Amino acid sequence: MSAILTVTFNPALDMTGSVGALQPGDVNLVQNYTLHPAGKGVNVARVLSDLGATVSVSGFLGADNQDPFSQLFAEHGVADHFLRVPGVSRTNVKLVENTGRVTDLNFPGMAVDPTHIDALTETLHALAASHEWIVLAGSLPPGVTTEQLVMWISTLREAGKKVVVDTSQHALRAAIDATPWLVKPNEAELAQCLNESISNEQSVLLARGEQLFNQGIANVVISRGVDGVLWRDHQGWLKAVAPAQQVVSTVGAGDSLVAGLVSGCQAGLSKETALRQAVAISALAVTQVGVGVSNHENVNQLSEQISVSPVELSVHAQ
Question: Where, if anywhere, are coiled coils annotated (predicted)?
Fold first, then answer.
């Protein structure tokens, strides 16, 4: 199998802290914390590596605090093609309450100039020759426009690559117009993208997802937290729900889902089997801080407990 490339435009050092109950406007004492390299594409790459895939990474990385990222890539056998940019990659703060609720403080990241953008375009063109699966993930840093994102997606798609996109807000809206092979918004991201208030009614989500599929996106995946995952492809809609887990942190659960889906699809698994595996990996991700698959047997056992069923699209919801 060919290698999988993940591209993180705006990586971050994630500082994840545990608090009892967040008190806005007051002093909050953090019980414990971790600091580790992250960013959606970085997280996807780490999980893919744990699943046995051959993985490459690229994007923009701050030269002044690159060491933790370089160490992570070396430890996991990931081929590092990140472009080093003057400055520091951002630090994001995740505050996890005892209830499992997470408050994200995501910073904008360092600015990228046209020279760096041109260099990444050349890098992606070169890497595309040996990577059939390319995951573009996360937010865009200052200096990178949505038009540039569309150009990258379109170029890779026209080269016959399976382009997977996991982003949000304006970037997601632009990406959808470029019709990648797969998109994975969650409920809130889908609502923001479509500029409308979407209830969490399954029928409404299905209808909106159906619109994206009819627009030309071959795989539309909508993650719904404890309510499971919806996946539309040429075979129709499937819904998967995992048994309840003891939640430590939900950070990285969506990235783990993307990694599981790409891994399963690349391996040629059936849609149901790939979905079971991906949802199991995502469900186990909430039981830990950070991402990674340390025990494959746990994934296999939980996969057997995932509820998977076809879903019919209501005519009235279309």
Answer: none
The residue assigned the tokens 């399954």 is: 202
Element (H or E) spanning 8, and its range?
strand 3-8
Estimate the crossing angle of helix 146-158 against helix 114-128, to 10 degrees.
20
- Helix 253-266 / helix 40-50 crossing angle, nearest 10 deg: 50
Phi, psi of 139 (to 5 degrees): -80, 170
Q: What is the pLDDT of residues 178-209, one digit of tens each?
A: 999 999 999 888 888 776 666 556 787 888 89
Which element (helix H / strand E) includes 153?
A: helix 146-158
Residues 6 or more apart from 155 whose CB is under 8 A from it?
124, 125
Residues in the chain with pLDDT < 70?
Answer: 1, 195-201, 314-318
- What secondary structure does DSSP assign to 56-111, as a single string? EEEEEEEGGG-HHHHHHHHHTT-EE-PEEESS--EEEEEEE-TTS-EEEE------
Instruction: State the DSSP H helix or E strand holding residue 136, giving kind and residue range, or none if neither.
Output: strand 131-137
Cα Rg, the chain, nearest whole Å: 19
User: Which segments within 167-247 are labelled E, that is strand?
Assistant: 182-183, 219-223, 229-233, 236-241
What distance in Å separates the CA atoms of residue 1 and residue 24, rounded to the nearest whole number?
A: 49
Tell the burial category of 159 from Cβ atoms under 10 Å away from its Cβ (0-12, 13-18, 19+): middle
Range of the domain at 119: 3-317
**Left (φ > 0), alpha (ψ -120 to 50) or beta: where does 145 sit?**
beta
pTM: 0.92
Which amino acid is located at 38 in the chain? A
Catalytic position from the list 14, 50, 166, 255: 255
Closest to 119 measured CA to CA, from 92, 88, 87, 143: 143
* Residue 227: active-site member: no
290: domain CATH number?
3.40.1190.20
Q: How many domains does the chain contain in total?
A: 1
- The secondary structure of residue 170, as a DSSP letter, is H
